[in-house]
Amino acid sequence: MTSPSAHPWEFTDDRGHRASAPGVPARIVAYLQAGAGLHDLGLTPVGVFGSFHDGERADRAKAGGLPLGDVAYLGAGAGLGLDDVLGVRPDLVVALTYGGGQVYGIDPDTAKHLEEQVPVVVFDVGQGRSLADVRERFAELGASLGAGEAPAAGEGLARAERELTEAAGAAGGARVLALSPGGPDSVHLARPAKWPDLSALTALGVATVEPPEGPGANWHTGDWPDAAALAPDIVLLDTRANAAPREAYGASPAWTALAERAAVLPWNPELPPSATAHAALHRSVAQALRGRS
């Protein structure tokens, strides 16, 4: 990473908003997922915040390689106030949106007042955005700030993509289902086309499982027998703090049957937007597919 420059800095985000500063920002506050991606680019935020799903502590599952002991956790959702963010003296805030320009994880009124005082860059990670799109936009921001992943990270991602395609072909159509536990009687089954990481797996030849049609743009909510009936060979299990813990559903006979049939891998639906994180996902799924071939 190069030293911050005194030259004027600007960046146009996915809302079409231009953020600017008299010099290259160095003190960054970010949504946790974004902060994990920036860390992989060589930019460790001074503070991170969570979403309305999060609590008083940073969700380790979403944090990637962030050194949480060295980064201030500022709060989440309604518990995140303007003074909490301004208190760490940021000169840039990096946030996400799932469409429509609404800043994710921050109360709209707080977001409005924040943007009046600090440059804010917002990236769209919603429907229609590919994993590569999101990763490349973060890389563009990193470059504008004088940072970026080492060439080895991109080379590692290319290798992981090749390995995954080869493993998917050798696995004879082994089926991958992504889900988020809701409790003893409910589970949320991911619609692959609505998630950039799952769409990337599909594009690389993985047979991702489509849940039944019905309400729910990103998820189909059903029960554990519904999940077991889909007969996946590999389960990507949401391990974020807002997903139900294993003790809440582990006694379900349908879950037991599912776990006995399928290889179960930890899954973070809010994957850090970096080549390092994306390669790790691809390698994990490739290894599981090789175990099924």
Automatic annotation (TrEMBL):
Alphabetized Gene3D superfamilies for the sequence: Nitrogenase molybdenum iron protein domain (3.40.50.1980)
Name recorded for this polypeptide: ABC transporter substrate-binding protein
Organism ancestry: Bacteria, Bacillati, Actinomycetota, Actinomycetes, Kitasatosporales
